[in-house]
Design brief:
With 704 residues, this protein is mainly alpha-helical. 65% of the residues lie in helices and 6% in strands. β4 and β5 form a beta hairpin. 36% of the residues are buried. It catalyses: ATP + protein L-histidine = ADP + protein N-phospho-L-histidine. Its EC number is 2.7.13.3.
Length: 704
C-alpha cells in the first residue's frame, strides 16, 4: 500500500535523545504540563483583595482626615492656652508700667512723696522685663520702646524730664506691648465661648489702659493744680476710649465677669475717683483745681488694681476654657484613633473572612478539577481503553465519586452548582470514553476480522497460483501467472498492514534467520514497481527469524513510498551497512523525488512517534502508512530506529536501524560485498553526514 505519509518530519529530532541518524525513540513518556500559577491581580483572590482594599483605603482616608482635624483642634487649643498665659504675663508687665507711668507723672508734677512707691514699682517692672526675655516678640518691643527707660528714669529723678514727653514715652511702650499681646486678634475659628473670652480680655485690657492713663494724666494735672495745653483734650479722649472699651466688654463678657466689673466700679475708692473726675468737667479753660493728687492716686490705683484683678479672673476663665478644649481635643483625637483602628481592623477582618470563604471553596474546586483532569479522568479513560472487557462495566466507584463536601464547606450556592456541574462533566466524559472505547474496539475488531479474511483468501489465492505456475509450460502464460502472483503478494502485505493497524496480527512465522539481501529482495517483491528498485550495496548480515517478516514489511512500505513519489525514470536505491561502533545494522532507502516540506515532516514525526490507538482514530486516512511503519518499528522492540533525511540533490532518504539483538551471526564472514558504485558510496556518506548533523543539532534527542 502507498506510504506517502511517511514524508513527514521525524518526531525524534528535537523530542528526545537522538541515536544514530537522529532517530526517534518510541519508548518514552510525555510530560504533562503542570498548572500555571495564577497571576496576582487577575486571580479571584487578587480581585477580591482589590475590591476590599479600595473601601478600606477610603475609610482610612476619611478617618485620617478626621484625625487630622482633631489634631489641628488639639494644636489650636494648646496654642491658645499658651497665648493666654503669655497675654497674662504681658498684662502684668503692662500693669507695672502703667503704675510707674502714673507715679513718674505725679513726681514730675511736684509730688515728691511719690518717690518711695516709684522706686518699688521700678523694681517690679525690671523683674517683669527679665521674665519676658525668652519671648522674642516681646523682647523686640522692649528693645525698640524701652531702651531709653533708664535715661527717662534718671531725668525724672533729676526733675529735668518733660512731663508730656515722659507720659508719651510710657504710653507708647504700653501700646506696643498691647499690640504684641497674642489675644489682640481673636481667631474666628475658635470655640465661641473661648472667642468671647478672648474678646473680653482684649477689651478689658484697653479699658484698663485708659483708666491707668487717666490716672497718670490727672495725677500730673492735680499736682500742678490746673490743665495746661492739650491735657484736657487728652483727658476727654482717654475717658471716651475707656467708656467704649467697657461697653464692648459688657457685650461679650459673661454675667460673672460683668458683675466683677460692676463691683470694681462700686467701691468707695472708685466713687471717690469719680468725684474727682467731675471736678475736672468745668476746668477746661485752665481754672484752678483744688484736689489732693495723692488721694486721687490712691483711689485710682485701687480701681486699676481691681480692674487688673478682673482681668486676671477673665484670663483664668479663658485659660480654663482653653485647657478644657485641649483636654476634649485630646480625648477626641484618642477616640478617633481608637475608633478608626477598630473599624479598620473590623473591616479588614471581615474582608479576610469574606475572601477566605470565597477563595477556599474555589481553591478546593480548582484542586478537584485539576485532580480530575490530570489523574482520575485520564486513568479511568486509559483503563477503559486498555481493557478487553465491556467498557460500560468498567466504571468503578472511584470514577463516579462525588467531590468531597469538605472541600466546599462554607462555599456559596453558585460554587456548589459549579461543583455539581464538574461532577456531571466528569461522569459524562467517562461515559463518552467508555462509548468511544467500545466503538473503537468494535471498529478495530471489524478491521482485524476483515484483515484475517483477506489474509486467508490471499493465502489460498497464492497457493492456487503456485500450483498453476508448477503446471504451466507456456512461457507467456507463466509470466502472467508471475504477475498475478506479485499482485497477490502485494494484497497480502496490504492485509497484513490492516492487521498491523488493528494491532492484532502476529508476525509471519520464520523458522531460521535470513540474510539481509534476502530480506531486501522479499521487500522488493511486495512492491508494484519492483523493476525500478536498485539494490545497491548490502553488506552481509543475518536477521533473526522472528523479525524477518516485520523488517521486510517495513522496508516494503518505505520502498513503495519512494517509488510513488519519485519520477518514473528514477530508481529507488536500497543500501545496507553494519556500524561496529553502535552494534547496529542500517537499511537505507534513497529516492530522488519531490522531497518533503517541513510541515509534512512534522506531521509524519508526530505519527511515527505515536503507536497508540488514538493516532489510528485521529490520523487522516492518507497518513495511515506512518502508523504502519511506526507500529512495525515498535513491534521490533527497543532500539529499532526510523529516520528521515533529505537526499542530496533532491528527494528523501529513509533509514531503518536494527539493534544487535535482532541480528544473527553471519555464516560466511569471508564473503565480501559487491563493490559499490561511486554514486552509492556518496549516498552512504550522505547518510552518515546526515546522522552526524542530526546528532549535533539534537544531543538530547529521543530514539524509537
Amino acid at each position: 500500500m502507498p506510504v506517502r505519509p511517511l514524508r513527514g518530519k521525524v518526531a525524534s529530532i528535537g523530542k528526545g535523545r537522538l541515536g544514530k541518524g537522529g532517530s526517534v525513540r518510541r519508548h518514552g513518556g510525555r510530560t504533562n504540563p503542570g498548572r500555571r500559577p495564577m497571576p496576582g491581580w487577575r486571580s479571584i483572590r487578587g480581585r477580591v483583595a482589590v475590591v476590599i482594599t479600595v473601601p478600606i483605603c477610603l475609610l482610612l482616608t476619611v478617618a485620617g482626615l478626621a484625625v487630622h482635624g482633631r489634631a489641628e483642634a488639639l494644636g489650636d487649643a494648646r496654642t491658645t492656652r499658651a497665648e493666654v498665659g503669655l497675654s497674662l504675663r504681658i498684662q502684668a508687665l503692662v500693669h507695672q508700667l502703667q503704675r510707674e507711668r502714673g507715679l513718674t507723672n505725679g513726681l514730675l508734677g511736684g509730688e515728691k512723696e511719690f518717690r518711695p512707691p516709684l522706686s518699688a514699682t521700678r523694681k517690679r517692672v525690671d523683674t517683669a522685663l527679665r521674665g519676658m526675655r525668652t519671648e522674642s516678640a516681646v523682647e523686640d518691643v522692649v528693645q525698640r520702646h524701652l531702651r531709653r527707660l533708664a535715661d527717662i528714669r534718671s531725668a525724672a529723678d533729676r526733675g529735668t524730664a518733660g512731663q508730656a514727653a515722659t507720659l508719651t514715652f510710657y504710653t507708647s511702650a504700653v501700646n506696643a506691648l498691647n499690640a504684641v499681646d497674642p489675644v489682640a486678634e481673636t481667631a474666628t475659628g475658635a470655640d465661641r465661648q473661648l472667642r468671647d473670652g478672648l474678646a473680653a480680655l482684649r477689651e478689658l485690657a484697653a479699658a484698663k489702659e485708659s483708666v491707668a492713663l487717666e490716672r497718670g494724666l490727672l495725677n500730673g494735672v492735680f499736682a500742678q493744680g490746673a490743665f495746661q495745653g492739650r491735657e484736657y483734650i487728652d483727658f476727654t479722649e482717654v475717658r471716651a476710649t475707656r467708656v467704649a472699651a467697657l461697653t464692648r466688654f459688657r457685650q461679650v463678657a459673661t454675667a460673672p465677669q460683668r458683675a466683677a466689673l460692676e463691683k470694681a466700679f462700686a467701691t468707695e475708692d472708685a466713687e471717690r475717683a469719680t468725684a474727682y473726675e467731675k471736678q475736672t468737667e468745668g476746668a477746661a479753660d485752665g481754672s484752678p483745681l483744688r484736689a489732693d493728687a495723692r488721694t486721687w492716686w490712691e483711689a485710682m490705683t485701687v480701681l486699676v488694681d481691681d480692674l487688673y484683678a478682673v482681668q486676671q479672673s477673665v484670663g483664668d476663665d479663658v485659660r480654663d476654657r482653653a485647657d478644657r478644649l485641649s483636654h476634649d481635643a485630646e480625648l477626641a483625637l484618642a477616640a478617633y484613633l481608637v475608633t478608626g483602628t477598630l473599624i479598620a481592623a473590623l473591616v479588614a477582618g471581615l474582608a479576610a473572612v469574606a475572601s477566605r470563604s470565597l477563595t477556599r471553596p474555589l481553591r478546593g474546586l480548582a484542586e478537584t478539577a485539576h485532580d480530575v483532569a490530570r489523574r482520575r479522568l485520564p486513568a479511568a479513560v486509559a483503563r477503559i481503553q486498555q481493557s478487553p472487557q465491556d467498557s460500560a462495566q468498567l466504571l468503578t466507584p472511584e470514577d463516579a465519586q462525588d467531590t468531597p463536601d469538605a472541600r466546599l464547606l462554607g462555599g456559596a450556592a453558585e460554587i456548589a452548582e459549579v461543583a455539581a456541574s464538574l461532577q456531571q462533566v466528569e461522569h459524562t466524559a467517562l461515559q463518552l470514553a467508555a462509548q468511544q472505547a467500545g466503538l473503537r474496539r468494535n471498529t478495530t475488531e471489524s478491521l482485524a476480522n476483515l484483515g484475517r479474511r483477506n489474509q486467508s483468501l490471499v493465502r489460498r489465492q497464492l497457493g492456487l497460483i503456485t500450483r498453476l505456475e508448477r503446471q504451466e509450460l507456456d512461457p507467456d502464460a507463466l509470466a502472467e501467472l508471475f504477475e498475478l502472483d506479485h499482485l497477490a503478494t502485494r494484497m497480502r502485505r496490504n492485509a497484513e498492514s490492516l492487521l498491523v493497524l488493528a494491532g492484532q496480527n502476529p508476525p509471519r512465522p520464520t523458522a531460521a534467520p535470513a540474510d539481509g539481501l534476502e530480506v531486501v529482495q522479499s521487500a522488493v517483491a511486495e512492491v508494484e514497481q519492483y523493476r525500478r528498485v536498485l539494490i545497491a550495496t548490502v553488506e552481509p548480515v543475518r536477521v533473526r527469524g522472528h523479525a524477518v517478516a516485520d523488517v521486510a514489511h517495513l522496508l516494503a512500505e518505505l520502498i513503495e513510498n519512494g517509488l510513488n513519489f519519485s519520477p518514473p525514470t528514477e530508481p529507488v536505491e536500497v543500501h545496507g551497512w553494519y556500524d561496529t561502533e553502535d552494534d547496529t545494522y542500517s537499511f537505507g532507502v534513497v529516492d530522488h523525488g519531490i522531497g518533503m516540506s517541513e510541515a509534512d515532516k512534522a506531521r509524519a514525526g508526530a505519527l511515527l512517534s505515536d503507536s497508540g490507538e488514538e493516532a489510528l482514530v485521529a490520523a487522516p486516512t492518507r497518513f495511515l502508512g506512518h502508523l504502519v511503519v511506526g507500529r512495525l518499528a515498535h513491534r521490533l522492540g527497543e532500539g529499532a530506529q526510523v529516520h528521515l533525511f533529505d537526499t542530496p540533490g533532491g528527494g528523501l532518504s529513509a533509514l531503518l536501524a536494527l539493534p544487535g539483538r535482532l541480528l544473527a551471526p553471519v555464516e560466511d564472514p569471508s564473503t565480501s560485498p559487491p563493490p559499490a558504485r561511486p554514486a552509492v558510496s556518496s549516498l552512504l556518506n550522505g547518510f552518515r553526514a546526515g546522522v552526524a548533523r542530526a546528532e549535533a543539532r539534537n544531543p538530547q534527542g529521543a530514539s524509537s
